[in-house]
């Protein structure tokens, strides 16, 4: 009998071989695993890649439980763990790339992903071509004989474009190209990557999986075809995580559905309120038609979250500073996915360095918000006061 999403979130990773009969798998800290006999040691060595206690870097029962849970949520054949989302991205790429290869990277990727391609990959002799997130069938024109990886991120970082992943995956597979997806926004539960042709689904579990802004953690779940290589290459590059962090990731999964649902409800209410504001040009929330790729979101996703952006009609950096500096419930910080609300501003000129082929050419400031779990009316009141400060500052500077 198939289980619903909420049930899976509660039961995932709770096999008795990890829990020993208690509700939560104990935190098992270990570097050295000891054996009483040569036969035991040899047996563990033979099974060392298959959730068997062998050496601390291969994992303990705490890690195995979390890995099982991620596979149960996203699908795939296995899950590799990393100390942060950026490590998951870079090591997933490094596990499959060689000197002379070519990567197709979405132009709206997470900024550290771009930096990795422009520095480490370039130094290794790997070429990166950035493509428009809305390219669709036009992707065919960018494929080269040495194209090895198609990297996607949907919605896109900061500007929130939703990609047509099924179409892009189909084109990639016709050309024997590996499809990777940064699936952090959907938290692995609101978009089912392997149902849409993705080969490796990557998350900054730091965000919604953990959900409390207190752990750095990354995951990469792969299909049966690519799991052995991802697992072994990541191991050889020394990737491992603390069992305490794995435990907190597993604990976060238990409340993931209720948190995401409330984040989504709050954010949509705020987004619709922002649409009524005279200062706002448009709102980039995937659930709204004003967001590029909204039709793909409506077709492929089962829910939203708290992260979206809105664009002001004009750019007034000093006035934007007044807006940001006086917030009561929104803080400025380079992350999201926790219980708290966050806010950051991007002036139009900043996209000149962040984009190659998909510069949105805003004339106004883009403001990205993460809507937390506070009372949504308090958050709207906070934004209302901030926009009033913004308007007053615009009037003062224009005199």
TrEMBL record:
It comes from the Bacteria. It catalyses: an S-substituted L-cysteine + H2O = a thiol + pyruvate + NH4(+); L,L-cystathionine + H2O = L-homocysteine + pyruvate + NH4(+). Pathway: Amino-acid biosynthesis; L-methionine biosynthesis via de novo pathway; L-homocysteine from L-cystathionine: step 1/1. Its EC number is 4.4.1.13. Coiled coil: none annotated. InterPro entries: Cys/Met-Metab_PyrdxlP-dep_enz, Cys_b_lyase_bac, Cys_met_metab_PP, PyrdxlP-dep_Trfase, PyrdxlP-dep_Trfase_major, PyrdxlP-dep_Trfase_small. GO terms for biological process: L-cysteine catabolic process to pyruvate; methionine biosynthetic process; transsulfuration. Its cofactor is pyridoxal 5'-phosphate. Keywords: Amino-acid biosynthesis, Cytoplasm, Lyase, Methionine biosynthesis, Pyridoxal phosphate. One of its GO terms (cellular component) is cytoplasm. One of its GO terms (molecular function) is cysteine-S-conjugate beta-lyase activity. CDD domains: CGS_like. Belongs to the trans-sulfuration enzymes family. This is cysteine-S-conjugate beta-lyase. It comes from Vibrio amylolyticus.
